[in-house]
Design brief:
about 140 residues, 6 helices, about 0% strand
Length: about 140
């Protein structure tokens, strides 16, 4: 029994270190936080962004280890979903800006003059995909 416990402890620690190292590499190497503050013109709040990430990671890690259920009405899912969508959208926009994905993609497929159409297709695809997921697969 103690060997099984030690093995699970080792696997959990290794998994946590791998995920943590990936997150740190993602945030530091790609410069996500500084670019996000540049896009939103809030460079004065960079420390607040950093602490929000630290507290969010700690809170998310703690909540994922427990079986929590929040007893709130369904109306709260609208503002919570909107805030989650804004966060994911901002992070995706910062990542796209850092990696210069869109200019490379447009040059490769030859639609450089249709950048607005490409961006709107990506945005509408994400919105419709999210709505489809939340409307039809919310009970799974």
């Amino acid at each position: 029994m103690i060997i099984k416990f030690m093995f699970l402890l080792l696997i959990g620690l290794a998994g946590g270190l791998a995920v943590g190292a990936g997150l740190v590499a993602f945030l530091t190497v790609l410069g996500i936080i500084p670019r996000l503050t540049q896009l939103t013109k809030t460079t004065g709040f960079i420390q607040a962004y950093e602490w929000a990430i630290v507290f969010g990671a700690i809170t998310g890690g703690g909540l994922s280890l427990r079986d929590h259920s929040f007893h709130i009405t369904g109306y709260w899912s609208i503002p919570i979903g909107l805030l989650c969508g804004v966060f994911v959208g901002m992070l995706a926009a910062a990542l796209t800006e850092v990696l210069n994905v869109l200019p490379i993609l447009m040059k490769r497929i030859g639609v450089f003059e249709k950048i607005l159409v490409l961006v709107m297709a990506i945005v509408l695809g994400k919105v419709l995909g999210s709505l489809f997921h939340w409307i039809y697969f919310v009970d799974l």
